[in-house]
Amino acid sequence: MTIIYLDNSATTAALPEVAIAVKEMLTENYGNPSSLHGLGIKAEKALGEARLQVAGLIGARPTEIYFTSGGTEANNWALLGIARARRRQGRHLITTAIEHPSILATCRRLEADGFEVTYLPADARGVIRLADLEAALREDTILVSVMSVNNEVGSRQPVADIARLVHSRSRAVLHVDHIQGYGKIPLNCHEAGIDLMSLSGHKIHGPKGVGALYIKEGLRLEPLLTGGGQEAGQRSGTENTAGIAGFGVAAQLAAADFARRTARMQEIKLELARRLVAEIPGAVINGPPPEEGAPNIINVSFPGVRAEVLVHMLEQRGIYVSTGSACHSRRESASHVLQALHLERWRQDGAIRISLGALNRLEEVEPTVEAFKECVQELWSL
Ligand SMILES: Cc1ncc(COP(=O)(O)O)c(C=O)c1O
After folding, report:
1. Distances from the Cα of 209 to the Cαs of 45, 66, 243, 278, in angstroms?
2. Does 368 sit in the ligand 1 pocket, CB within 6 Å?
3. Which atom from ligand 1 is nearest to the alpha carbon of 75?
């Protein structure tokens, strides 16, 4: 059975070029970048190359990229690192109600530690209101954290407008969780006025377990990991050289192919969304209208259909999608994002996320729509 993989916001397949780079680092270029000998220097050079590649896609300087164990660590570090470095300046943070759990759970930790967090609401399209942000900014606000693209519904926040507001009305640092936006939407960290940005390798056809935090030059935050002083003393631990090299290649390929990839994803997305709504009675898109959100994410519900059941039925036909976000899909609890969007209960229970990557093709639309139609009809006839 041929597989149609439509769960790229959960994770992606590594591209062949990425796998080659990873293998080379594991088997040939295996030195420790801290070693003084030739193999160490060669590994150090590979890290430098990857730093350049990862920085390129967001317009950062390579010296502003700090490699981490993934997006979760980058998000934890941004929040905890700023809170610890600036606790004398203030104890108030602002984020949104629809962030990833790696932000929200870290906010809960900070609250337990005496910080105060404001959670901005999102409208039905999954976008925050600038007026709410403006009203929430205070003298003691030390950090604002927003995601560029929501992982469940694909909504995009107006990051550049948010940055202007934050910097003109406060002394707060702006952190952007760009894990779902990286390689999908154009965003230049310097031009947009972003201070910190989290990235992850496995959402862009790179390896899992590797990510990065962009830290604007001159900005100070406390390290999470202390030890041997790797990553300019900011993130200790022997570098995941294979993962980092693979991440670099994935970023390089995403940058080189950016326009073509995003245009193709958008074309597939619009066609899928149009046909699902037109051909399955009662189907509704959750979150932003298809032309507005990220080019690769559709969230859709069908009346009288529970998402978990549909996911399994589609899998039997070789089609891989998820319910809401992958982080929730094995748990019973409802999605906090769909709740924050105030969707009716049946839409929350029935929400299916279809997410595209660089390997999807327009020809996959037809069999996907047919499979959805068959499965939904079958469930309705029971
Ligand atoms: C918006 C967002 N932030 C953070 C993460 C966590 O990244 P990682 O899987 O690299 O830890 C994810 C992963 O799904 C995500 O979608």
Report:
1. 21, 14, 7, 40
2. no
3. 4
